[in-house]
Amino acid sequence: MSKKQILFGLAFGAVVLCLPPFLKNYGVYMFTTWLIYVIATMGLNLTVGYAGQKSLGHAAFFGIGAYTVAILMKAGFSWWLGLPAAIALCFVLGVVLGFPALRVQTIYLAFATLGFNTAVWLVMRNEEWLTGGTFGLNGIARPEIFGYSLKDGLPYYYFVLAIAAIAMGLMWGLLRSPWGKAFQALRDNPIRAESLGIDTRNYTLLSFAIGAAYAGIAGVLFASLVDFIEPAPFAVGASIMMYLMVVVGGSGYFLGPLIGALVGMVVPDWIRDVFPILSNWYLPLFGGTVVLMMIWLPDGLMSLPDRIRAKRESKLASAKRADAKSEMAAVMGEQK
Amino acid sequence: MTDFLQLVFSGFATGSIYALAALGFTLLWQAAGTINFAQGEFVMLPAFMMLALLSYGAPLPVAFALTALISTVVLGWAFKKSVVDPLFKYGMMQIVVASIGLSIVMKNAMRAGYSAEAHPFPSLFSDSLFNVAGVTISTGDVGTLVCALLVVFATQAFLAKTVTGRAMQAVAQNTESAAVLGINVPKMIFYTFAINAVLACVAAILVTPVYLAKFDMGDSLGTKAFFAAIIGGFNNSRGALLGGLIVGVSENLAAAYISPAYKDAVALVVFMVVILFRPQGLLGKREERKV
Q: Strand pairing of B129-132 and A148-149?
């Protein structure tokens, strides 16, 4: 890591640790939402950005996580049981969703996962006995930790921050391990990866399952944050948004989700709050930005520094070439 | 039994509209390797354009003709020039993401700039019912089915019988050889985009009286058209028709006999079965993976 990166990391840590106490309730709420979507899109970034799979069904896992904890808590179980249960359920369903990926690729896979999301959403909407249907489930309490209640906004924010930090640390470790390299091999050239002895089948399924588990964690945190869940935030549109967040942030960049979730979730909320007139125009603007980004910056915002560096280097190189050329010309002239 | 026949028939009518949108999908995919996620919005925009023209007093046929013309320019030419051409070198997923972005733009700009309400749309056909051997059939369904089938068959005849159509197919099958044979490849690809835009307009005029004109009317239409295209076979334009009809009919039957709440999941189930057992689609040809 370079000095610049360490400095940047410290400054970033200082902001997320020290800024929220100075914010109003709504600001803290938005920071918490942001971290929750960072966890969710980090999982999607593994599936899409590192392992090269296509998934337009991520919000389904987000929803399954949220509903699992809500239903379990309704039945009288503790939040601390709901969290692992949600993670486990999402992991298993992630493996199941991975199976179509063994048969079909790219756009077929995108639509298969999109269909999965529709199915999950229909269950949430229609099975009133379980999910409350369109009325949703309310009264999802926030957990206690060592007897200390996380009911208020700020303590809950720090709790989510801690979980996000753990999740990021685990992801960092995973990506640096041989597993992480195997995921990237799967993305870059699946047939060659297979011929090198990587079990592409297992890694495909795992990339979906781990991604789904991250969405599950985020879903649990989300349910406790908003205290009331209904099917809308888990519909296909939300999955598409999450996919765009990964792409806009920079798919396959570790820190991409931080920016993606900021642009996709927090900025629109902030605009709604500060410039209500513009709020309807944020989505068209966001969509337009995505189109333009695909044309000019297809690797996402995180690739911007690389881009600038590459441009500067090529400019330097061409300047050097020009110098060398004129020097050559001068030398040739002397010889004559 | 008569109930069943009635359901099948009205399913055909809906399915034929899916087939129209699905046909546009497969044509774009074959000729330009483009998956258009905004296909549903390509139907929504013409619907509103026709409504606007109607409100200025234009009769429906005139409104349709004008809309088809404008769509060819905007949704055909401009879409190809501004989004597909610059992205073509990057590959399919880039175009997919850009078209997702485009669909968000179209949908939400329509909502923010015009209206979030559903607007009624005049039907081409009178709203009468008649009886054939005990089966009640509505003129709207018959008209929709006949119109949609005519357009699908006309498109296919154009592709199979005319010189231009065959040149377009040649481009779709092997762009390089087509270029070597002196076919104007960019022009043929543009024709495909133009046909897609016109098909979307036809779908708009047939579907909007039933679905009503609304900013998000394209959501389910686009997805189902896509499912229909894959079920039928993505590299075969006859597949789009078959897939569309299968989706339309099975949806209707499931809504009546299984559960109306899960109607939207039917296309998905058929789709999953097809990609698990025959990923190339019912009428499609298998494509090999390459290193």
A: unpaired
Nearest-CA distance from A316 to chain B in Å? 27
Q: Which domain holds residue A316?
A: 303-336
Number of folded domains that form chain A: 2
Question: Closest Cα of chain A to B9: distance in Å?
Answer: 26
Radius of gyration of chain A (CA): 23
Q: For residue A296, give how far its alpha carbon lies from the nearest alpha carbon of chain B (Å).
A: 9
pLDDT tens column, B110-154: 998 888 888 898 888 877 787 777 777 888 888 889 999 999 999
Tell whether A3 is covered by a domain. no
The CA distances from residue A23 to A272, A274, B166, in Å, are 17, 15, 66
CB contact under 8 A, A294 and B103: no
What residues of B are in contact with residue A103 (Cβ under 8 Å)?
Answer: 275-276, 279
Residues 232-291 of chain A with CB under 8 A from chain B are: 236, 240, 243-244, 247, 280-281, 283-284, 286-291
**Interchain proximity B291–A189, CB inside 8 Å:** yes
Asked if this assembly's ipTM is beyond 0.90, the reply is: no
Question: Which of B93, B104, B108 has the CB atom closest to A106's CB atom?
Answer: B93
In DSSP terms, B137 is beta-bridged to B130
A12 found inside a domain:
no
The pair of three-digit structure tokens given for residue B284, joined into one six-digit string: 């499609």
Measured between CA atoms, how close is B159 to chain A, in angstroms?
A: 25
Residues A219 and A322 reside in one and the same domain: no
Name the token pair of B51: 């409504």
Domain assignment of residue A69, yes or no: yes
Mutate to test the interface with A, among B34, B36, B105 (most CBs of A within 10 A): B105
Residues whose CB is less than 8 angstroms from the CB of residue B168 and which lie 6 or more positions away in sequence, other chains included? B31, B159, B188, B191, B192
Same domain, A217 and A321: no
The answer on A259 and A317 residing in a single domain is no
Report how far residue B222's alpha carbon sits from residue B89's, in angstroms, rounded to the nearest whole number: 25
User: In terms of domains, do A313 and A250 share one?
Assistant: no
- Which residue from B10, B38, B44, B4 is spatially nearest to B193, judged by alpha carbons? B38
Instruction: Note whether B291 contacts A104, CB cutoff 8 Å.
Output: no
On whether both A273 and A138 belong to a single domain, the answer is yes
Q: Is residue A166 part of a domain?
A: yes
Say which CATH number the domain at A42 has.
1.10.3470
User: Does A68 share its domain with A176?
Assistant: yes
**Same domain assignment for residues A111 and A139:** yes
User: Tens place of pLDDT for every residue, chain A, 336 residues?
Assistant: 678 878 888 888 888 888 888 888 888 999 999 999 999 999 999 998 898 888 899 999 999 999 999 999 988 898 999 999 999 999 999 999 888 778 777 778 888 898 899 999 999 998 888 888 888 888 788 888 887 888 888 899 999 999 999 999 999 999 999 888 888 888 888 888 888 888 888 888 999 999 999 999 999 999 999 988 999 889 998 999 999 999 989 888 898 999 999 988 888 888 887 888 777 888 888 888 888 888 888 888 888 888 888 888 888 888 888 888 888 888 887 776
A311 and A252 in a single domain? The answer is no
Interchain contact, A244 vs B35, CB within 8 Å: no
- A313 by Cβ neighbours in 10 Å (0-12 / 13-18 / 19+) ranks as exposed
Site from B81, B100, B111, B263 to mutate, A interface, most A CB atoms within 10 angstroms: B100
